Amino acid sequence: MTCLYLLVKILAHIPTKDVVATSLLFKRWEFLWTYMKRLEYDQEYQFGKRIGFSRFVDKEIGLWIRTAVRRGIPELTLECGDILIQLPLRLLTCKTLVILDLKGWIDLNIPVTASLPSLMTLHIVLLRKSNYEHFSRILSSFSLLVDLMVEQRTSTAISTLDIAVPSLQRLFIRTVTKKDNGLRYSPHEKPIPKVMINAPCLKYLNIDDRGNDFNVIKDLTQVVEATINAKQTSTKVFLMYLTSSIKRLLLYSLRLEDMDPSIFCKLVNLELCTSTCGWLKLLANSRLKLFNVM
């Protein structure tokens, strides 16, 4: 075990800025930080330092991403603040990227040549209205996508969110309103018209969205676990497609008359967050063999 190996193992447990500072101690350590497998840059500093840091990072971020891609990067988290970032073409054709996390002001108008053949996990926060126009095309570039998490704001959502991924197994959709952030609703703040889901291989579903209407294009016959916090109409839509396979189900604020427990032939775990009376009696009279009811 070499001295260099030990140093790299030790430095892997400290912040990136401290790793770079360590490289200044000795001439032979000058490029020690380049051996790090993970580099984290953030702007959690005082306001003045934050502005300088942000400008420096935004100016060089394209170069850093291209360098990481050349080295076969498997995972990238990109969170941008004040300046709009254009994703480098080299990133959009990376063959080694498995996990991609995009947050903030990022331009999703990607070229038709974009293809990430190894990408399996995508977490994305939609902050720009124009990104909705390109979202479906982005998903079509990920032929092996298994895990998708989408977070959106009602203040920027203006059109239908279309999710069509044949390989998708896990889907999490969360819509944040101004009310969620402790702010008042704007009279111009309207939910997007509809969320379209076409994912025939989906197994795990998590919906946290009480503003939008959902439409399921393909039967969700493979879903075994679901958490649904949505409007009454959307909840009823999901329940129609979950009857044959669902085993674990968590529901929020569902009316008693909208639920017939007997339709879930494989359900073994049910959690209900509701103030409606009569649920225990309804479940007791059903033929379900539930092992856990919350």
TrEMBL record:
Short name of one Pfam family: F-box
Biological classification of the source: Eukaryota, Viridiplantae, Streptophyta, Embryophyta, Tracheophyta
Protein species of origin: Brassica campestris
Annotated SUPFAM superfamilies: L domain-like
Protein name, entry field: F-box domain-containing protein
Domain F-box: 6-38
